[in-house]
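*Target chain*
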Amino acid sequence: MAAPGRHVGHYIQRNSRFLLNNVELLRGHRCFGWTSALRQQAAEANKESTETIVIPRKKTWSKEAVLEALASTVGRDPTAYPYEYQDDPYLAPRTTAEFKLFSLSQEAGRSAAKYFVNSNPKFFTKDFAEPHIPCLMPETVSLLLEEVTEEALNERINLRRVTAAVDMYDRLLQAGTAVSMETTHDLLDLICLYCDRDPLQEGQPQMEDMEESGEEVKRKKTRFGRAADLLRSTWRENNNAERIFNLLPERDTRCYSALIRGMVKHGAHAKAFSMYTDLLNNRLNADVHIFNALISAAPDVREKFNERWDLIAELLNQMKQQKVQPNLLTFNSVFKALRRCGYVARTQALPTLNEMKALGIAPSLATYHHIVAIFYKAASTGKNNTDILHEVMSELAGTSFTCQDPNDVQFFMSAMRICMDSKDLELSYKVQSLVEVGQNWRLLGEPYQKSTYYGRFFSLLCMMEHIDVVLKWYRQLIPSLHYPHHQGMRDLLQALDTDSRLDLLPTIWKDIRSLGHDNKSDLVEEMLALMARDRHSPEVQESFAVCALDVKSVFDEERGKMRLEWSNSSLSNIISLLLRANRTQQAWEMLKLFKSNNRVPDEQLLEDFMSVCHSKRSPGKAVELVQLSGAFCLSATPRLATRALAEFDLTEEQRAVLSELESTEQPSD
């Protein structure tokens, strides 16, 4: 049987002549480049006809390729809920507080489910997922090896059982069994990472260190300033990490690295530098992780700004002497430490950045976040204060980033804060354009950070941009990317007022209700005030009246212990809107709410009511209106009575009532 490559060669040789003979017929299509392509193809066919044809191997696609291809064809629906909330739209958060509650509840649910799966793996033995998703399968969380062996120690280390691992290590030493250095490294890393305590297992409550007295808790609160800081573990003197380290017959750089990084992580900065000195005394070289930790801790062991920088520079020189190659986290630690070096930071930041680029290390978003923080002064105003951010955005335009540093997620939020503080709309557009590049939107951070970013961007648009542009962004961002807080909706109302687009207020009110902000009295009051301030066309006044009745239903709703209370302005504005739309009967019913809610109507409102009564020829309503004014002891009562006597055909009884009210002396203010 002939080789398949031979048949292919004969086929190409036979058909290459056809291609050459028909090239001239295709000259009319030269604008598409077909002629040159055919000639090149024919020439290559003749050249390779006598050579062996190598058939390329079959391309192997990843299991996620189809899903990735399908995902690339789907865009974001700006009218839909964010994808993480689409499982239950009824419970979708609409406010910042609900965002936090939803996120905590969602994470608690995941942790509880994971704890149940891991605790009962026998019920989850089948895996139907394709491709296989290891994180959704049960993990081994129970100890299987009970004998005193190094394998049992490794099992406890892999399961992050700090106390059990230390106990097994001690039992091995008591039994005279030597533990390999690799296992010892892993044990020290585990102890130093969790500060000699068992980590809190997912879904399982852990009550530890709760036996402290009230004075001790109060002392810690006073020391740290926030109760949240109590959750941060502190390095204990002579803990198991130090004890095991001191028992080692030989200590290498990895052992020192574990302790130094743990001391820096848990607040023992001075002790970390002491441990580094001990490393040098033992004629060992540090690794890049040790230097990164010490650089970040430098501001905590020096008081003066120049002394802090001198220590950082000394550490960098020692890295060079020990031939330790710095990485991205090294320079990010330098920039982060420079933020605490005051005036020295501005003179050293840019030379450090240039050296970083000279070494071929590409800055991450965290790098630029620290640099901008060094040069930006929140108290200053003017464009010069934002020059550094302008330069950064020009350099980053069109660049796609991946997360390389935990502080990468801080860049966009801080950049938009600077745009907001400086009222720089052009700069905010540049920041938003960078967010839209590739997958940069993933670096907006947690949901509350993402909400803060878009909230600042939208508020800046409302202040600085034309209303048509504001509404375009409003439709793009809400609700698919951002749920505005009630202050953001107030900014939108002000933008509508500035550009005289109050006719859109009823539409915005529907969004206010759907977003759950109809329980904010200041927002509702401003909404009614804007609608009632000026007169508009009959069509607009009718839409305002319908909206006003919907606002009235909000005041009537019972929402547990929370309920909006009527104010003079809210009642007056709703009545004015109803009167302008010729809804006299509904306005009259609203007027009665003044008395039931112990409110006093505005005199101008009563004058408007009298005018409506005159146009409707309703003397009975006019008399009742004057009586209502008298019941509130308003100074306008005699004037209203005089006007009613002059403008209406009244009965003798009605005239007597009005004459009595006309002669009544009102109490002076």
About this structure: Residues 507-599 form one domain. Residues 41 and 595 are 94 Å apart (CA to CA).
